[in-house]
TrEMBL record:
One of its GO terms (molecular function) is zinc ion binding. Its EC number is 4.2.1.1. Belongs to the alpha-carbonic anhydrase family. It is an enzyme of class 4 (lyase). It catalyses: hydrogencarbonate + H(+) = CO2 + H2O. Keywords: Lyase, Metal-binding, Signal, Zinc. PANTHER family: CARBONIC ANHYDRASE (PTHR18952). It comes from Acinetobacter gerneri DSM 14967 = CIP 107464 = MTCC 9824. InterPro entries: Alpha_CA_prokaryot-like (IPR041891), CA_dom (IPR001148), CA_dom_sf (IPR036398), Carbonic_anhydrase_a-class (IPR023561), Carbonic_anhydrase_a-class_CS (IPR018338). It holds the Pfam family Carb_anhydrase. This is Carbonic anhydrase. Residues 23-249 form the Alpha-carbonic anhydrase domain.
């Protein structure tokens, strides 16, 4: 078990908004996902929530009208850190890093990695999943999820990793120019549903966009992340869908 991390940089959450959640959680043993709801009053939704993430995506409904998502990640990322739960790349606080959905702007806060994937598609699990966490002016979250499969190496990953230090909470500035569009699929059909943070406090009301098409990374690149995690997984198991509708766009 890795050294305890006190929840200051929780995956899928803005770093500041959940700074008071100081109860340790993890993916193995007594603090693993099935125990999260009992670890703290603030984590109750992890056990009682009805709109929890991740899910197995199946039985989707086709949208009759188009909802194009405009992604404009113009600024280079700020820094990269292993926060004890995941490798996280923090974005610059900028109006130029945004996702526009139905006229609403969501600004990129950070992106991070899960291995294996958290969401599954028709039961298929991928070796890795990237979560791009975006927030609008009211703090509502939209997460863009990108599946990764084994294949060609991804040049952006190599550039990010150049600055990475595996020691916990050793935040390092990004020194390369990163083309974030190369961490997104070129074909951008997606599934859309309402869910939650996949980490404590499991807050709901998160807009999830999961791209149908994966990107690729090499086996070596995927293993770089697995090695940082001591070859232990950092995915929450899939949760009950509870009648939620998944729209296919
Ligand atoms: Zn995540």
């Amino acid at each position: 078990m890795k050294k305890l991390i006190w929840g200051l940089l929780c995956c899928c959450a803005g770093s500041a908004s959940y700074a008071n959640n100081d109860v340790h959680w993890g993916y193995q043993g007594e603090v693993s996902a099935e125990h999260w709801g009992a670890l703290s009053d603030q984590y109750q939704l992890c056990a009682t929530g009805k709109n929890q993430s991740p899910i197995n995506i199946q039985g989707t409904y086709h949208s009759t009208d188009q909802h194009p998502i405009q992604i404009d990640y113009a600024e280079n990322p700020e820094n990269i850190v292993f926060n004890g739960h995941t490798v996280q790349v923090n974005a610059k606080n900028s109006q130029n890093n945004k996702v526009t959905i139905d006229g609403e702007n969501y600004y990129l806060k950070q992106f991070h990695f899960h291995t294996p994937s958290e969401n599954t598609i028709d039961g298929k699990q991928f070796p890795l999943e990237i979560h791009f966490v975006n927030a609008n002016a009211q703090g509502q979250l939209t997460v863009l999820a990108v599946m990764v499969e084994n294949g060609q190496a991804n040049p952006e990953w190599t550039k990010l990793w150049k600055d990475f230090k595996a020691q916990e909470n050793q935040t390092k500035p990004i020194t390369s120019q990163i083309q974030l569009q190369n961490l997104l699929p070129t074909t951008r059909e997606y599934y859309r549903f309402s869910g939650s943070l996949t980490t404590p406090p499991c807050s709901e009301g998160v807009n999830w966009i999961v791209y149908k098409n994966p990107i690729t990374m090499s086996q070596d690149q995927i293993q770089m992340l697995q090695k940082v995690l001591n070859f232990q997984h950092n995915n929450r198991p899939v949760q009950v869908q509870n009648g939620r509708i998944v729209i296919e766009d």
